[in-house]
Amino acid sequence: MIALDADGVLLDYSAAYAGTWARAFGVSPVVCNPDAYWPMDRWGVARLEGPALERFRASFDEEFWSTVPPIEGALEACSELVGQGFELVCVTALASRFRQARIANLRTLGFPLSDVLVVEDQGLHQSPKADVIKALNPLAFVDDYLPYFRGMPGHVHKALIVREPDGSPNAGPELSIVDSQHKDLRAFSNAWATRRAGRAGKP
Predict the structure, then answer these.
(1) Looking at the whole model, is its pTM more than 0.85?
(2) For 85, left (φ over 0), alpha (ψ -120 to 50), or beta?
(3) Average pLDDT of adjacent 10-residue blocks, the chain of 203 residues
(4) Which of 25, 34, 36, 157 could form a disulfide with 140 if both were Cys (CB 3.0 to 4.6 A apart)?
């Protein structure tokens, strides 16, 4: 089994963010910094307060969470991993009320997942995903957010998708807790195919 994050690994949250901004305010944002990790910085949109902020937050509804587009190459990477014999499970941090929307989104896009598990981020020092990963006991856990590797079992391979560098939380001493880094899920899939072939070739 391999456990996969959703936003930033399977799904393009940043693109969905721009679409939601357009839906809320009637103006489509343009890319300001393509190397920005956070959508607000990528699209260069205003920092909202008061009624405008509430209006935008209200746009992150069932429709939003059921229509996030896939990251380019992610579906193909999942198909390759399944073809290598791995079972794929999605472990995503999201408000539990949107679980069905997330499941519908991933299924509609055709991701070959055996299950989708939703955890709520409680702002603790340990990753909100740690207990789920301990229970699943996968061979590997793939995420694009370094703090979500805190408290993970040592024997589980921790693969970080590094993504865009500007403003990224994926830096500093905590990088020592991950076992590998990849630019996207396709790169992870290729690395694991090579790793598996190498093990198969051992006498």
Answers:
(1) yes
(2) left
(3) 97 96 92 95 92 93 96 96 95 95 97 96 81 96 96 95 94 95 96 72 49
(4) 157
User: What does the block give as tokens for 69?
Assistant: 């587009």
* 161 close to 9: Cβ distance less than 8 angstroms: yes
Distance linking the first and last C-alpha atoms of the chain? 25
Query: How far apart, in whole angstroms, are the C-alpha atoms of residue 123 and residue 121?
Result: 6
HSE, side-chain direction, 13 A CA sphere, residue 67:
11
Instruction: Report which residue type is found at 78.
Output: C
Residue ranges covered by each domain of the chain: 2-11+70-200, 13-65
Q: DSSP readout, 53-112?
A: HHHHHHTSSHHHHT-PPBPTTHHHHHHHHHHTT--EEEEEE--GGGHHHHHHHHHHHT--
